[in-house]
Task: inverse folding
């Protein structure tokens, strides 16, 4: 006979870690990532403000912060999968470096390539190599590193069945 306990009622499900990790990534964007943007804005490093609901992404027109939250949930999945057997300082360093390096490189090179493939032109479809270098080069690693640490912290705080351990 099949197990009739649902995940919501305390049962174990293979899908729950995926949902939990995705939610951790979304929450980390809405907290750690956006707070890092806010701090960088306060110091004059970043002209745009946190929690930007006015600007829309191309080509779908979704508000920037909601797009970032969705992709934060997606990026959290491979990060959490790779972190599942790490502990101690290695756990935290991996989270920081995954966010600061892997996610930032994806934002710099993969995202513009994908947007260009869908007909988006202009700055949104230009890789970091096609833009002038300046102080803003540190923004990606800082905010994405903050996101990585945020995901790691949220995963530690989640119940055992809601994240890979």
Result:
């Amino acid at each position: 006979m099949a197990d009739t306990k649902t995940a919501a009622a305390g049962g174990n499900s293979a899908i729950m870690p995926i949902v939990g990790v995705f939610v951790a990534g979304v929450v980390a964007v809405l907290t750690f990532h956006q707070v890092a943007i806010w701090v960088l804005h306060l110091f004059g490093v970043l002209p745009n403000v946190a929690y930007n609901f006015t600007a829309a992404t191309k080509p779908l027109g979704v508000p920037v912060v909601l797009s970032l939250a969705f992709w934060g949930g997606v990026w959290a999945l491979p990060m959490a999968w790779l972190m599942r057997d790490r502990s101690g300082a290695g756990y935290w360093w991996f989270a920081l470096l995954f966010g600061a390096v892997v996610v930032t490189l994806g934002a710099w090179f993969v995202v513009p390539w994908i947007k260009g493939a869908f007909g988006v032109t202009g700055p949104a479809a230009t890789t970091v190599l096609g833009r002038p270098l300046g102080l803003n080069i540190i923004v990606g690693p800082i905010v994405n590193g903050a996101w990585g640490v945020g995901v790691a912290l949220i995963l530690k705080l989640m119940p055992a069945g809601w994240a890979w351990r």
In short: The radius of gyration is 17 Å.
